[in-house]
Amino acid sequence: MSIVAQTTERKAVTTLKKVLPIMERLDHVAMTAADAFDTKTALNLIKRVIESNPEPKRRTQK
Questions:
Q1: Which residues constitute the domain of residue 47?
Q2: How far apart are alpha carbons 50 and 16 in whole angstroms?
Q3: Who contacts 9 (Cβ-Cβ below 8 Å, separation ≥6)?
Q4: How far is CA 12 from CA 2, 26, 28, 40, in A?
Q5: Whole-number Å distance between alpha carbons of 51 and 14
Q6: Is residue 62 part of a domain?
Q7: Prediction pTM value
Q8: How far apart are CA 53 and CA 6, in angstroms?
Q9: 58 occurs within a structural domain
Q10: Please, which domain of life does this record's source organism belong to (predicted)?
Q11: b or e along 21-53 (b: 16 or more beta carbons within 10 Å of the residue's beta carbon)?
Q12: Based on the structure, what is the number of domains in the chain?
């Protein structure tokens, strides 16, 4: 994997972390059952992406 790909991946995960709380608030919005199911599926997929890409360990400065 190139350095560019690693940087992009971190940015994507960071963006998904920002979107997650907004999507979690959608349960309070009236929508059809099919839309609610699709939204919940998307929410679960986003959570899976975030959980499968943990934060990189940072080096401590001495």
A1: 3-52
A2: 7
A3: 53
A4: 16, 21, 26, 20
A5: 12
A6: no
A7: 0.73
A8: 11
A9: no
A10: Bacteria
A11: eeeeeeeeeeeeeeeeeebeeebeebeeebeee
A12: 1
CB 46 within 8 A of CB 19: yes
- Residue 16: exposure state from Cβ atoms within 10 A (0-12, 13-18, ≥19): middle
Say if residues 25 and 40 touch (Cβ distance below 8 Å). Answer: no
Q: How far apart are CA 35 and CA 45, in angstroms?
A: 15
Degrees (nearest 5) of the Cα angle 36, 41, 18? 95
Please indicate, yes or no, if residue 21 is contained in any of the structural domains: yes
Alpha helices, DSSP H, located in the chain:
3-24, 33-52
Dump pLDDT digits (tens) for 9-55. Answer: 888 999 999 999 999 999 889 999 999 999 999 999 999 999 988 77
